[in-house]
Structures are given as structure tokens and as C-alpha cells.
Specification:
membrane; mainly alpha; 30 helices; two-stranded antiparallel sheet; 2 strands
Length: 690
């Protein structure tokens, strides 16, 4: 698009726009926006000259000069109508509709969809909150205008599966819903949810709480509560309460799953509202939705028990007491869900069992020992989680069977002892107290032995107890070993990190010498203070620290590779110890290098240099010196002994052999020399006789 044409559309210069009349059809931006898109975008942003109450002459002029631009879509599929509806500009929407001449073209225009299959109606509903909801009445006017032009518009669904009614319900727009429900038959949303599903979840933040505890929903001209929105949807389509999402959950499941809150106690009110508006010839048909399980077999009552929504439990039980006996796919009863709920206290299970409703109290006590498919009772489950408060409460009930065994032949005591990583001697006070209490109530009978051996014979029970205790002790020992190995691994990781840091620091120090480098002369590039004793100490200590820390890293990595071979575990331990020694010595070298370097750069101020050296040495070697010296001597002693043993095994035997050979040859030479001397003496004697 030409810059002059673009600028004319932005600032609304009608005369300049007329000058481009022949080119309006072909001019567009890289995003395929026409000049009408540009002008409507500025108007949707409510910027000059198209702000509220501003002139719409430029937009009208473009429509008159090139009417075909009204239906042109950009790269995202948005028409100017989409953009105007998104900004809540009802005046622009009306202008675009008015400039479309025929009725059929108007119907076609308002039903046009973008790349996401959103109509202008979808855009208006989704963006009503822009500008801090200041222009919400205008958005409502946009909705009314679009519906008036095509009453089938609310039935169109976008790519996300959202109907206009669904969006309005999700946003809590009561006034918008009134307009949409008058002509809509589509209530669906993503994942097979409906407008009623999301209305149940509705709760706006920052609003003043109503007297009934419900947060007001945001609306256009009036404010209605969430219950009013639920009522409006149920009035329009009563069967919505039976509609399932893709997990087979109804809106009643959603409502029962809402937690009770101290300030906003709306979950039971929503449950009550849904049940009050449910239609049916009798209670059995009317409240059949209460029996309805989701794909996991969970009913609304199960959700309420799991969440701890006690008032919702009362509502559901009062309408349909038979549902209390339903179990899910795992065989869990309502009491199982009450124990396994998100709260860590006993409030839900206690509320049910000690309920003021005698009927609920009787049924719950009759089911307190019911088992799931794994054979677990609520007591087993409380021990497995563990929920100590619920466990303590259930243990105190005489009706609860403390000796009940599940399919793995475990009692609640066995499960409690096996939870956590600590041994029985190191249990927390609360857990230990519960375990001891449960042990007294169960008679201390273990269930770890095979089922066939579980008889009433006292002697055999004692043997089973020993077997179970031994197995539990073995389990504790295994966990202790695993914990020790984990701690060792963490310590070795820290050692590797320390060695790496030392190598990094000392490597950098090697190229940032104290005193700098010569920049001229025959010694250019050489260290300035290389002849100073302190510099030599710095260099030797820093180089040693660098070499030892690098050796520690290499030794550590080599030891890690050795751990994969169990036969080399002792070798790996020695390597880790060696790496630790290298790291410790490297730390000493790094401290010495630091002190020497500090002394070197402060050499012109001897008192300060001496004091810094003394302080540095005292603060390091004072606290750790004695212990460090003992550790080094101890390790070096063992290490030197080990080295000498290896040297002895490798070289002493060969050395002895060599010595023997040398002695042999020496003795042989002596014998030959003696023989030669004797012969010479004989020769001399014979010569003398002659």
C-alpha cells in the first residue's frame, strides 16, 4: 500500500482518499489489509479522528468509493466487520451493514468467518472486557445489531467448538444471554462442554460479595448473580443439566466439585439451584442425574466428598439418599473419597459419620468397613495416604474393623508402618503414636505372611508376626541404604561443583597476573613482577590448585564410570576419596595464591601487606588447620602405604633378582681372577727355578 494512502486512512483525510479512487481496490498491506481495514482498525482503537463521537466520514467515503472492500478479508480472514465488532464500535458496524445494499449481502456479510471460523458475533462477545468494560453497552448493541440482521448467527460454531451462547455464559454476560437465547439452539463448547458447565464455574474476582454469598457476574446494563445465569440457561433448555462433557461429567459434577469457601460459599447454592430446576414426573426421574457417573464411575456426591463440600453433600443426600451406596470404578465409596480428599484433616469423614441427619449417620456407619476392589477399607486408605487426622478418627470408632486385611493381606498397621522412608524407630511423634495406638487395637497381629497361614492359632499368629516384622525390617533397611546412597550422590555432586569452580577461578587467575605485563622492550609480554618471591609463590600455588582441581574432576568422572561395574565399587570409592583430597589441597593452594597475590600488589605498603597476609592465613588455617592437617596426614599415610605396597609388589621381586644376578656375576669374576693369579704365581716360580 502506498504510504500516502495509508496515512490518509489513518488521519481520515477524505480529499486525499478520493485521489486514490482508482487504486483502492488493488492497494493492500503485507497483511492483506485494505484501506478500509486500516481506517476501521483506528476506529476500533478509539483513536483520533475516529474516537467516541468522532467523525465516520472517511470510513463512509471509502465504502462509497469502493463498496467491494466491505467484504474483503485480510490474511487472517478478518473483514472490516470483524474488526469493528472486536472493538465494540456499534456505529461502525451499523455503517458497514447500511452500506451493504441488498438483504442477501447483509446476511452473507454478518455470517462471514475468519481463519478460526469466528464470526463478528464471536469477536464482540469475546472482547467485551476491553477498555475496562467501559464500552460494554456498545458491545451489547453490536450483538443486537448482528442478531437482528441474521437470527441464525448464534448457531454458528467456531474452530474451538464455541457457540456464542457458550462464550456469553463463560464471560458471565446475563444481558447478552437474554438476546442470544431468544434465537439460539446451540449451547456447546470445547471438549463437549455446554454453556451450563462453564456457568457453574463462573466466579468473577474483585466484585462485592452479594448477600447470598455469590459473586456478581459482569453484565452489560444490569448485574445478575451466577445463580441467575444458571437459571436463565436451565429455563431455556432444562436438559442441559444432563449433558455430558468428554469425561461424561454433567454440570452437577462441576458444581459438586467446587470447594466451600469461608467467604464465598457458592458450591452448595449452585447444586441446590440445579436440582431445584431439574424437571421430571417424579423424584426418581427428576434426580436421576445425581446417580449419573462420569467415565471413572464418580458421581456428584463422590466429587463433593473428595472436595470437602459438606453442604453439597447434604443437598445431594437429601434429594437422593440411595446414591450414597454407589461406588466408582475402583470400588471406592463416598467414605473412601472423604478420606482421600485434598484436605489433610478429618473434617469431611467426621462430618458424614457424625452428621445430624440420622439417616446419613446410619448409612455411613453401615458402610464404614466396605472394601474397594483392592480390598482397602477407608481405614486402609487413611493409612496409605496418610491422612493422620482421619486415621485417628476412624481408629476411635468401635464399629471400624482395625484387623481388616486387604487383597495384599495387609492391615492398616502394616500400611502405616510402610509409608515414608524412615524406619519405625525414627517415626514422627504423631505417626508413632498412631502406630502404637493401632497396634494395641489390632492386637499387634501382622498380615505379611501368606493368607493360608492366617489362622486363629496363637502360636501360628506369633510366627506370622515375626515373619512380617522381619520383612518390614528388611524393607526399612533397604530404604535406609537407598537414602544413604542418595546422600552420598548429593555430596559427590557438590565436590565436583567445588572442583570445577576452583579450576575456573585459578585458570582465569593464570592470565590476569598481579602487576600486569611488560608492554615494550625485550621482555614484552612477560610478567612485570616475575622476579619477586611473592609472585613466584603465587604462581606455584595457583598452578598447583589448577592442576589438582582438574585432576579431581578427571578422577571424579572416572569414579562415576566405575560405579556402573559393581566389581569395581571399592575402586570407585577410593577414586572419590582421592578426588576429595585433590580438591582440599587445591583449596589450600587457591588460598595461598590469593594471599601471595594480595601481598604482591600491596608491596609498597608493607604494614598493610603483612596484616592482610596474616589475617588471610589466620582466618583460613585457624578454624580448619588442625582438622585439615590430621585429615591430610591420615589420608596420606594410608595412601602412601597403599602406594608402597604396590611398588613392593611390582619392583622388589625384580630388584632382588637383579641383585642376585649381579652378585653371581661378581663372584664369578672373582673366581676367574683368582685362577689367573695362581697361574701367574706358578709361572713366576718356574721361571725362578730355571
Amino acid at each position: 500500500m502506498k504510504i500516502a494512502l495509508y496515512n490518509a486512512a489513518v488521519v481520515g483525510e477524505c480529499e486525499k482518499l478520493e485521489g486514490f479512487k482508482a487504486e483502492l481496490e488493488s492497494q493492500e498491506t503485507l497483511e492483506k489489509n485494505t484501506v478500509l481495514h486500516v481506517a476501521v482498525k483506528v476506529a476500533a482503537a478509539r483513536k483520533a479522528p475516529y474516537e467516541n463521537g468522532g467523525k465516520l466520514g472517511p470510513i463512509r467515503k471509502i465504502c462509497e468509493l469502493c463498496p467491494s472492500l466491505i467484504r474483503r478479508a485480510n490474511l487472517k480472514g478478518d473483514t472490516p466487520l470483524h474488526i469493528a465488532a472486536r472493538g465494540g464500535r456499534s456505529d461502525v458496524v451499523k455503517l458497514l451493514v447500511k452500506e451493504t445494499k441488498s438483504v442477501d449481502e447483509v446476511v452473507s456479510l454478518v455470517t462471514m468467518v475468519n481463519s478460526k471460523k469466528d464470526t463478528a458475533l464471536h469477536e464482540a462477545l469475546r472482547n467485551h472486557h476491553l477498555f475496562d468494560r467501559k464500552y460494554q453497552p456498545e458491545y451489547l448493541d453490536v450483538v443486537k445489531t448482528l442478531i437482528y440482521k441474521n437470527e441464525e448467527l448464534p448457531n454458528l460454531i467456531n474452530d474451538d467448538g464455541e457457540s456464542p451462547v457458550f462464550i456469553a455464559a463463560r464471560e458471565g454476560l446475563y444481558d447478552f444471554l437474554e438476546e442470544l437465547l431468544s434465537c439460539s439452539s446451540e449451547y456447546g463448547g470445547p471438549c463437549k462442554t455446554t454453556a451450563l458447565h462453564v456457568a457453574v464455574l463462573l466466579r468473577e474476582e474483585g466484585e462485592k460479595i452479594a448477600k447470598d454469598g455469590i459473586l456478581p457476574a459482569k453484565t452489560g446494563e444490569t448485574k445478575k448473580t451466577v445463580l441467575d445465569i444458571i437459571g436463565k440457561l436451565m429455563e431455556a433448555k432444562p436438559d442441559l443439566i444432563k449433558e455430558e462433557d468428554e469425561s461424561k461429567r454433567t454440570p452437577l459434577h462441576y458444581a459438586a466439585n467446587l470447594p466451600s469457601h469461608k467467604k464465598v460459599k457458592d458450591s452448595h447454592e449452585k447444586v441446590k439451584k440445579l436440582l431445584d430446576l431439574t424437571a421430571g414426573p417424579d423424584d426418581d426421574h427428576k434426580y436421576s442425574v445425581v446417580y449419573h457417573p462420569d467415565k471413572n464411575g464418580m458421581t456428584a456426591l463422590h466429587y463433593a466428598a473428595h472436595t470437602g463440600a459438606t453442604k453439597s453433600i447434604d443437598e445431594l443426600f437429601e434429594r437422593c439418599s440411595v446414591c450414597f451406596e454407589q461406588v466408582d470404578n475402583k470400588g471406592w465409596t463416598t467414605l473412601h473419597f472423604a478420606v482421600a480428599g485434598g484436605s489433610s484433616d478429618d473434617s469431611t469423614i467426621k462430618y458424614i459419620i457424625k452428621n445430624k441427619n440420622e439417616k446419613l449417620r446410619s448409612i455411613s456407619m453401615a458402610m464404614v468397613n466396605d472394601r474397594d476392589k483392592n480390598g482397602d477399607t477407608p481405614l486402609h486408605l487413611a493409612a496409605r495416604i496418610p491422612n493422620y487426622d482421619a486415621l485417628s478418627f476412624l481408629m476411635d470408632l468401635p464399629e471400624v474393623n482395625k484387623r481388616a486385611r486387604n487383597n495384599d493381606n495387609l492391615t492398616a498397621l502394616d500400611i502405616l508402618k510402610a509409608t515414608g522412608t524412615e524406619s519405625m524407630d525414627d517415626l514422627g511423634l504423631e505417626k508413632k503414636s498412631l502406630a502404637n495406638n493401632l497396634k494395641k487395637k489390632t492386637g499387634a497381629i501382622s498380615s505379611e505372611a501368606p493368607k493360608v497361614a492366617a489362622k486363629e492359632d496363637t502360636q501360628q499368629d506369633g510366627e506370622l508376626q515375626k515373619v512380617g516384622s522381619q520383612r518390614m525390617e528388611d524393607l526399612d533397611n533397604e530404604r535406609q541404604v537407598a537414602g544413604d546412597n542418595s546422600e552420598k550422590g548429593n555430596l559427590r555432586d557438590i565436590e565436583l561443583l567445588v572442583a570445577t569452580l576452583i579450576a575456573t577461578v585459578t585458570f582465569a587467575a593464570s592470565f590476569t597476573m598481579p602487576g600486569g605485563y611488560n608492554n615494550e622492550g625485550p621482555d614484552e609480554g612477560m610478567a612485570n613482577l616475575s622476579s619477586e618471591p611473592a609472585f613466584q609463590i603465587f604462581l606455584v600455588a595457583n598452578t598447583g590448585a589448577m592442576a589438582l582441581s582438574t585432576a579431581a574432576i578427571f578422577t571424579h568422572l572416572n569414579a562415576v564410570m566405575s560405579t556402573f561395574d559393581r566389581s569395581k565399587s571399592s575402586k570407585a570409592d577410593r577414586s572419590f576419596n582421592k578426588a576429595n583430597l585433590f580438591t582440599v589441597i587445591a583449596i589450600i593452594g587457591m588460598v595461598i595464591a590469593f594471599v601471595a597475590g594480595t601481598y604482591l600488589v600491596l608491596a609498597n605498603n608493607k604494614p598493610l601487606a603483612i596484616w592482610s597476609t596474616v589475617i588471610g592465613c589466620c582466618l583460613f588455617f585457624g578454624p580448619v588447620g588442625p582438622r585439615l592437617l590430621v585429615s591430610l596426614v591420615k589420608y596420606c599415610y594410608h595412601y602412601l602405604v597403599h602406594v608402597f605396597e604396590q611398588l613392593f609388589n611390582l619392583f622388589v621381586c625384580q630388584l632382588v633378582c637383579c641383585c642376585c644376578c649381579i652378585l653371581f656375576w661378581c663372584k664369578k669374576d672373582d673366581n676367574s681372577g683368582n685362577k689367573e693369579g695362581e697361574e701367574e704365581n706358578k709361572h713366576l716360580q718356574s721361571s725362578a727355578q730355571v
